[in-house]
Amino acid sequence: MKKAVLFLWIFLGAAGAYAQKAKVKAAFNYYKEPYQQYDKAKEAIEEAIANDQTKSSAEAWYYRGLIYAALYKNEKYGSLCDRCLQTSYESYKKSLDLDPKSNYAIEINALRIPFLTNQVFKEGVDNFNNRNYSKALESFELVQVMAPGDTSAITNSAFSAERAGNTEKAKVNYEKLIGMGVKDPNHFISLSNIYRSANDNAKALEVIRNGRRANPDTLSLMYSEINLLLAMDRGSEATDVINAALAKDASNESLYLVLGSNYDKLANPKDADGKELPKPANSAEMAAKAVEVYKQGLEKNPNSYSLNFNLGAFYFNMGADQNNSANKIKSPDESDKMRAKAIQNFKNAQPYLEKAMETNPRTNEEDRSIYDATMGSLKEVYARTNQTEKYQKISDQMK
User: Fold this and answer.
1) DSSP 276
2) What is the pTM of this model?
3) Do 235 and 265 meet the contact criterion of CB atoms below 8 Å apart?
4) CB 313: neighbour CB atoms within 10 A?
5) 26-42 pLDDT per residue, tens
C-alpha cells in the first residue's frame, strides 16, 4: 500500500510539471502568428512563472519578454500592461540570469534588448517633446540600465530631470557625463547653474573652471565665470577673465560695459548698502583703465548709448566727487584747483551724455530710466558749466 501511495505522488508530481511546461508552450502558441491572442498568452505565461515547476525556466522568461514587447502599444491588447517595455526587458534579463548560455541568449542580447532599448528611447523622446518630463526621465533612466554608459541616455536624463525640476537627478547625470570625460560646455554651465540656484556659488565656480580647463577657448564658459565672479564680489579676478573673453570677442559691447564698470568699482569701492569705502592705492590706475575700456568699446560702436552713458556717467561722478571735495577744502586756492578739475570732468562727460540721450531708443523701461537719468545729469552739467541756453532747453524738456 505504501508503495502505491509513493507511486501516486510521483505520478502526480510529474503530471504537475508537465502541466506547467504545457502552460509555457501554450503561452508561446497564443503569442505566435497567426493566433496573436496576447491576452491568453499573458495569462498563461504569468501562471507559468508563478509556479514552482517553471518559475526558473529561462524559456518561460524569454517568452514573457516576447509577449510583453508585443503588448506595447498594441491596439487591441495594449491596455493589459502599464510598463510593457520595462517588464519585457526585466523578463529577458531574468532569462539571461537563469541561463546565460540558453538557446535564446544570443537572440536576447543581439536583437531583443537592443530593439527594446531603441523603443524606450523613442518613448522618452516623445514624452520630452510632449513636455511630460518626469515620464521622459523614467524612460531615459531605463535606457541607462539597458545600455550602461550610453551618453545620449545620460544627457537626456539630465535634460529631462532639469525640466522636471528634479535638480538632484539632473546634478547626478551631469556629473556622470563630466566624470566620463564628456566636454560639452553646456553640461558644465547647466551643472554650475544648478549649484548657483542652490546658493552654492563656490561649487558653481569650481564646475565652471573645470569646464574652462576642458574647453579653454569657449566664450560661454568665460561669460559664466565672469558672472559668478562679479556676483561673488571678486572683481579683480573677473577682470582677467573679461580681458581673455575680449581677446576672443572684441566686438562684444557687453564685455566693454562689464569691464569698464568693473574697473570703476575697483577704483571707487562701495559696501553692500552703497556707502563709499576708502579708495585703494591704485584707484587712479583703475579709473584710467575704466575710461580706456569704455573708449575702446566706443571705437567699435560709436553709437552705443550704453557705452556713451557709462563713460559720461563715469566722468560726471568723478566731477561730482571732486566738487564735493572742493567744498570741504579750507584753502581757497586748493579748493579752486579741485573745483576746476570738477568742471573739466563735467565738460568731459557732456559729449558722451548727449550722445547717449540722442541714441537711446527708449523701447523698454530700462532704456527710459537711463534716458531720464541722462537728462538729469546733463541738466547738472549745463548748470555747472554755465551753459544757460542748453540748461533752459533741457529743463523745459524735462517738464
Assistant:
1) B
2) 0.83
3) yes
4) 21
5) 878 888 888 789 999 99
Cell 536576447 maps to which residue?
Answer: 108
- The pLDDT tens digits of the residues spanning 126-136 come to 999 999 999 99
Q: Can you list the alpha helix ranges (DSSP code H) found in the chain?
A: 2-31, 38-50, 58-71, 84-98, 105-107, 113-129, 133-146, 151-164, 167-179, 185-197, 201-214, 219-231, 235-248, 253-267, 283-300, 305-328, 332-359, 365-384, 388-398
Distance CA 40, CA 46 (A): 10
pLDDT of residue 5: 45
Residue 276, beta-bridge partner list:
270
Provide the β-strand partners of residue 270.
Answer: 276
Q: Comparing C-alpha atoms, which of 370, 348, 351 is closest to residue 302?
A: 351
Span 12-103: which CATH code?
A: 1.25.40.10
How far does Cα 178 stand from its chain's mean position?
A: 14
Q: How far is CA 21 from CA 16, 18, 92, 175, 294, in A?
A: 9, 5, 18, 48, 85
Instruction: Answer yes or no: are the C-beta atoms of 62 and 45 closer than 8 Å.
Output: no
Residue 45 · residue 30 · CB < 8 Å: no
Distance CA 33, CA 355 (A): 81
- In degrees and rounded to multiples of 5, residue 276 shows phi and psi of -65, 135
Confidence of residue 8 (pLDDT cuts 50, 70, 90): very low
3-state secondary structure of 385: coil
Q: Are 376 and 317 in contact (CB under 8 A)?
A: no
Output the DSSP codes for 20-86.
Answer: HHHHHHHHHHHHSTTT--HHHHHHHHHHHHHSTTTTT-HHHHHHHHHHHHHHTT-TTTGGG-SSHHH
Contacts by residues 146-153 (CB-CB < 8 Å, ≥ 24 positions apart): 146/89, 146/113, 146/116, 146/117, 146/120, 147/117, 149/180, 151/177, 151/180, 151/182, 152/121, 153/121
Distance CA 162, CA 92 (A): 31
The angle subtended at Cα 180 by Cα 223 and Cα 202, nearest 5°, is: 40
Residue 12 corresponds to which cell in the numbers above?
502526480
Q: Which three cell numbers, joined as nine digits, stand for 75?
A: 491596439
pLDDT at 97 over 90: yes
Specify the length of the chain in residues. Answer: 399
